[in-house]
Amino acid sequence: MAACGWCRCRAALALRAAGSSLWGRRGAAPEPRAVHVPSPSLCSERESSVSYQELKDLKKANVLHIDVRERWEIERDGKIPASVNIPLNELVEALQMNPADFKEQYNQKMPAKSDHVVFSCFAGTRSRQALSFAESLGFS
């Protein structure tokens, strides 16, 4: 599991800048490969980092990417492609749901406690909290 808060490089802003200022309201974000990110380092609680390319590769391997930003932030700034939005204040409850309820609510398979999950937010603080919450619930 990793927390990637798009810190330092503000990749979320770079993604937003790659499209129009309203792309979050128009639907899907532009493909991430079209975005130049000057410092592709993503931070985690353990100070290890996941590069932008590593995140793309992880997503190809069916790693669950949970964006813990608020829904209004997703509407304003846009959705990160192939991520599921579970606001931080819903995360503990979501990770304890019945798998069928999780699938219905988030349109995504419930992660197993041994599955790889990447958390992201705007600046890194909430993704680190999400990582702590998940670990406290027994996710490895």
Folded structure, characterized:
Residues about 5-50 have low confidence and may be disordered. It is built from seven helices and six strands. The strands form two sheets. A four-stranded parallel beta sheet has the order 1-6-4-5, covered by helices on one side. A two-stranded antiparallel sheet has the order 2-3. It has a domain at about 50-135: Oxidized Rhodanese, domain 1 (3-Layer(aba) Sandwich). The chain is an alpha/beta fold and about 140 residues long.
Q: Estimate what percentage of residues fall within beta strands.
A: 5-15%
CATH architecture descriptor name of the domain at 52-137: 3-Layer(aba) Sandwich
Q: Report strand order across the widest sheet.
A: 1-6-4-5
Structural class estimated from helices and strands: alpha/beta
Kindly provide the name of the CATH class of the domain at 52-137.
Answer: Alpha Beta
Number of strand elements: 6
Poorly predicted tracts of residues: 5-48
CATH H-tier superfamily of the domain at 52-137: Rhodanese-like domain
What is the number of helical segments per DSSP (H or I, 4+ residues)? 7
List SSEs in N-to-C order.
EHHEEHEHEHHEH
Task: Give me the CATH fold name of the domain at 52-137.
Answer: Oxidized Rhodanese, domain 1
Separation of the first and last Cα atoms: 7 Å
